[in-house]
TrEMBL record:
The chain crosses the membrane at residues 265-287. This is Glycosyltransferase family 2 protein. Keywords: Membrane, Transmembrane, Transmembrane helix. Gene3D superfamilies: Spore Coat Polysaccharide Biosynthesis Protein SpsA, Chain A (3.90.550.10). It comes from the Bacteria. It comes from Candidatus Methylophosphatis roskildensis.
Length: 341
């Protein structure tokens, strides 16, 4: 598989090849998506790579696929959960199995990494000790469009994948700073991941990556996008694009991300924008025939707010960067077509 011909990595003179990576695939009824995902990981040029699947109590055909992977890819370790812990909990539990690895690579089952992607990611992390997380260039299945080049976060609390759906073009090779990588394919420094508590399991899924990226920023880490690290991302293979499930979690979690992480005076400055964004999101869901989802998402967000404000106090006490630094990480121009997906 090839996603273009960017600066292919030859024998590296640095020691990044010796750094250990565990690639974690969280599966929930992911079925046949798993085999090509594992195959792409098994072909990575980075040699010190372990593959782990955390299965969230799948049923049906996925069980046979997991057995097939055990036979065909014996280097892949499979953990079977008795309950669905979500994307957040599944990654956290799997990461706990590998406390000594240098890096954690989260990989959605519907993502296919190009041959050198992990090596590009690790090499970038090895040369920047303050980098806590790195994202790839996510491409559409036909390779003609960007699926995302890192998350963007507006002061209103609206988040989206940068350049999602835009025609593919050359991006250069230099890493660039972002607020958060999309965790569909993201490399996390284990020490940073652990220090910040990993993914917030109350989120279950959706926007848990933006939340973690924001917390990393507040703790003094930064996040990068490495253009040459590429992957195909099919998107929403388990939960369905535009499903009630994704709408509920996305619209609930947008409130929690803002209330947990927006620091100091920025919280009060941007709170009116956040309230307007929530009203707009409700209107969008109602227009899509999902008034019940809108009601439940916002009510449940408010019910969970005391716990989130408790987390906020702990997060903000540990903040190591200035308000201005965070302000510079925000994206003020909204990307058309990406609101409330």
């Amino acid at each position: 598989m090839s996603l273009g011909e960017p600066n292919r990595v030859a024998g590296s003179s640095d020691n990044s090849d010796s750094l250990s990576v565990v690639a974690i695939i969280v599966s929930w009824n992911s079925g046949e998506w798993l085999i090509p995902c594992v195959q792409a990981l098994s072909e990575q040029s980075h040699s010190n790579l372990t593959i782990a699947i955390w299965d969230n109590a799948s049923s049906g055909p996925t069980l046979a696929v997991l057995d097939q992977i055990s036979d065909s890819y014996p280097m892949t370790r499979i953990f079977r959960s008795d309950a669905n812990l979500g994307f957040a909990g599944g990654n956290n539990r799997a990461a706990e199995k590998y406390p000594d690895t240098n890096f954690i690579l989260t990989v959605n089952p519907d993502a296919l990494l190009d041959h050198d992607s992990v090596r590009f990611l690790v090499r970038a992390a090895a040369t920047d000790e303050h980098c806590g997380a790195i994202g790839v260039t996510q491409m559409s299945p036909d390779g003609l469009y960007f699926d995302g080049i890192g998350d963007c976060y507006n002061p209103s609390g609206i988040a989206w994948r940068g350049m999602h759906g835009q025609p593919a073009r050359a991006l250069g090779s230099a890493p660039r700073k972002i607020i958060s990588p999309c965790a569909a394919i993201a490399l996390y420094r284990t020490s940073a991941f652990a220090a910040c508590g990993g993914f917030d399991e109350d989120f279950f899924c959706y926007m848990e990556d933006v939340d973690l990226g924001f917390r990393l920023q507040l703790a003094g880490w930064h996040c990068l996008h490495v253009p040459d690290a590429k992957a195909i991302h099919f998107g929403a293979s388990a939960t369905g694009s535009g499903s009630d499930f994704s709408a509920y979690h996305g619209h609930r979690n947008m409130i929690w991300v803002f209330c947990k992480n927006m620091p100091g005076v920025l919280f009060w400055l941007f709170l009116p924008l956040h309230l307007v964004a929530n009203l707009a999101s409700i209107a969008v869901l109602v227009a899509r025939g999902k008034p019940g989802i809108a009601y439940r998402a916002k009510i449940d967000a408010l019910r969970g707010l005391p716990a989130m404000l408790g987390k906020r106090r702990a997060i903000q006490r540990r903040r190591k960067v200035s308000i201005l630094t965070i302000l510079q990480k925000l994206t003020f121009k909204l990307q058309a077509g990406q609101l409330f997906r």
